[in-house]
Structure formats: C-alpha cells, structure tokens
C-alpha cells in the first residue's frame, strides 16, 4: 500500500477531529471527547502551538470505504524531564482499522522519533491502557519500557470540582 | 512558619537543581539526574520556555540548616489532551524535609492549580511512584484521581538504543 507521511496543516483538523473520536471509541471513552476541529485549528496552528501532528495519507484510489484519504495521525508535543531535559510526548497514534498492517503506524512512530532526535530530546514517551494488548505489544516489540510495570509510576489527575477546590485554597501571598 | 511563593527566576536555577537531586534521592533514582543548572537556565528562561516554575522561600531567619532560604519548588508545563484541550502537567512538587507540614506543598499545588485555571486548562496532571504513600495520600486527600488504578493507564518510554532504532527505521517519504 502506498502512503505518505507529512506534517498536518490547519485543513487537516476535520480529519484529525474525526480520528480522535474513532480512537476514543476504540478506547471505550467516546464521551470524554470535548474538542472540536475549530479548537484543534486554534491550539495547533497558532504562534506557540500546543501540539504538532503528522498525518498519514493514501492516494485517492486507495481511499477508505467512506471516502477518506487521511487515514492516520500522530499528535505529539514537548514536555520536560527535570532529570533528562526536553522530551517528546506522543499523545495519540492512530491508524484507521482498514489500513492497519501496512506499516503506517510504525512509520508514524519512527517519524516522531526522528523529530525527537532532531530536537535533541533523549526520550519519547506515551501512555497506553493496560487492556490494549495490541498497542502494548506493538510498543514492547520495538523495545519500549513500561515504566508503570517496572518502576511503579501512576497517573494522577485533578479536574472539575477538585481542581476548583485547589484554586479556591491558593494562598494570596 | 512564614513562606512566600513566587515565580522562579534564572537566579533560582542553582537552588532548583539542588532540589531536583534531593527529590531524585528520595525517589531512589539519583543516578538518573543528568541536568545541570545551566541547562535549566537555558530551557526555562528562553523565548519559548520548556517549563515554568514556582519557588517557596522562607525568611533569612528561618533558613535551613545548610543556609538555604529557597526550600521548595513546583515545576510544570503545558501539555495537550485531544479530548479536553490544554492541560497543566506538574512534573515536580518538592519541599525540603525540614520544612514539611507547614502548608508549603499544598500552597505550591494550589498556586499551580490557579495557573491552570488562568490558562483555561481543565486538568492538572502529574505522576507518582506507587510506593510513595505520603504523596499518593496527599493528592488523594485533595480529590485527585489515580488513573492508573481506575482506568489502567501505563507509562511507556523509548530512550537510548531503542529510540535510535526507531529513528533509523523512519520512512524517507
């Protein structure tokens, strides 16, 4: 299968938005998606964008059943380790089901790794759900370490009322 | 105990660097710290900084045994959720042992929550080691959710040779 990997443009945000929802459906959390393609346009294509994104595109003659030629994406940004410095964090890596098994996911991952190296980041990090065996196997086969399993790192989140509570208790000095 | 919370300046990087190492010692991973205070100065105080940092400072008359007045820090940056938009990620929250129990850690956390709200971030996230019961209890008492325990999220990392391997396999198209 022919495919091309390229940097996303503002015009891709409708496709990215569609695939974000497809990925959330796969992760059994479609209700959590509150982002519109307008917000993606604003947040990713401004002076200091919150994220960067790569797109996988197939030729018109190989388009999906529904007529899409943008069939995968990798959305990432830069974080910071106080031990190791700048790091790339891969928020989403997705390929539409009918296009899997053609090296598109691997191609996207390798391209993001290339960006990391270019930006002098010594780490590429991401997170995955423990029941998502295909993804865990995919990363493990490429040598990734599961830091939750080996070192015991847990994700913690404040949001909604518990975040508001913190704000209300912030010292004024 | 009197303390003041304020934004870090470039001049604080030596103190931040010292406390990064103290925190890594507490986390039993001191060998992982490869960052110098010069790198913190460069990465945090440039045109598009990789992180922001708050400092906790006590008056001269309450300085630490070793003579330090900068006794805690909260280092954070902005990440992006493709479900919810901009998010604050708290990389490090630390208070020197002899200054704990005075509300400094809580003050720093609440101040970071305030930053999150001001920047229209609906989430404040962080990670913690599973054996670090004092920290886990601290966050849980304030209403934080442990997403690894409840949803099964695992941290995955590529670095060193496995990251290089990805780069070497990146498609050229």
TrEMBL record, chains A, B:
<dbReference type="InterPro" id="IPR000182">
    <property type="entry name" value="GNAT_dom"/>
</dbReference>
<comment type="similarity">
    <text>Belongs to the acetyltransferase family.</text>
</comment>
<feature type="domain" description="N-acetyltransferase">
    <location>
        <begin position="3"/>
        <end position="164"/>
    </location>
</feature>
<keyword id="KW-0808">Transferase</keyword>
<dbReference type="InterPro" id="IPR016181">
    <property type="entry name" value="Acyl_CoA_acyltransferase"/>
</dbReference>
<dbReference type="GO" id="GO:0008080">
    <property type="term" value="F:N-acetyltransferase activity"/>
</dbReference>
<dbReference type="Pfam" id="PF00583">
    <property type="entry name" value="Acetyltransf_1"/>
</dbReference>
<protein>
    <submittedName>
        <fullName>Diamine acetyltransferase 2b</fullName>
    </submittedName>
</protein>
<dbReference type="GO" id="GO:0006595">
    <property type="term" value="P:polyamine metabolic process"/>
</dbReference>
<dbReference type="InterPro" id="IPR051016">
    <property type="entry name" value="Diverse_Substrate_AcTransf"/>
</dbReference>
<keyword id="KW-0012">Acyltransferase</keyword>
């Amino acid at each position: 299968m022919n495919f091309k990997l390229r940097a996303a443009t503002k015009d891709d945000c409708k496709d990215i938005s569609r695939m974000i929802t497809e990925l959330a459906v796969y992760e059994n959390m479609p209700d959590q998606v509150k982002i519109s393609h307008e917000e993606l346009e604003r947040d990713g294509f401004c002076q200091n964008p919150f994220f960067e994104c790569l797109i996988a595109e197939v030729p018109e003659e190989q388009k999906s059943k529904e007529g899409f030629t943008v069939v995968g994406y990798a959305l990432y940004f830069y974080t910071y380790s106080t031990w190791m410095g700048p790091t790339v964090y891969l928020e989403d890596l997705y390929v539409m089901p009918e296009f899997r098994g053609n090296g598109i996911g691997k191609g996207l991952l390798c391209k993001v790794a290339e960006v990391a190296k270019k930006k002098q980041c010594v780490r590429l990090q991401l997170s995955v759900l423990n029941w998502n065996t295909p993804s865990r196997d995919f990363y493990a086969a490429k040598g990734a370490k599961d830091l939750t399993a080996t070192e015991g790192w847990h994700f913690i989140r404040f949001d909604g009322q518990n975040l508001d509570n913190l704000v209300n208790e912030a010292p004024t000095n």
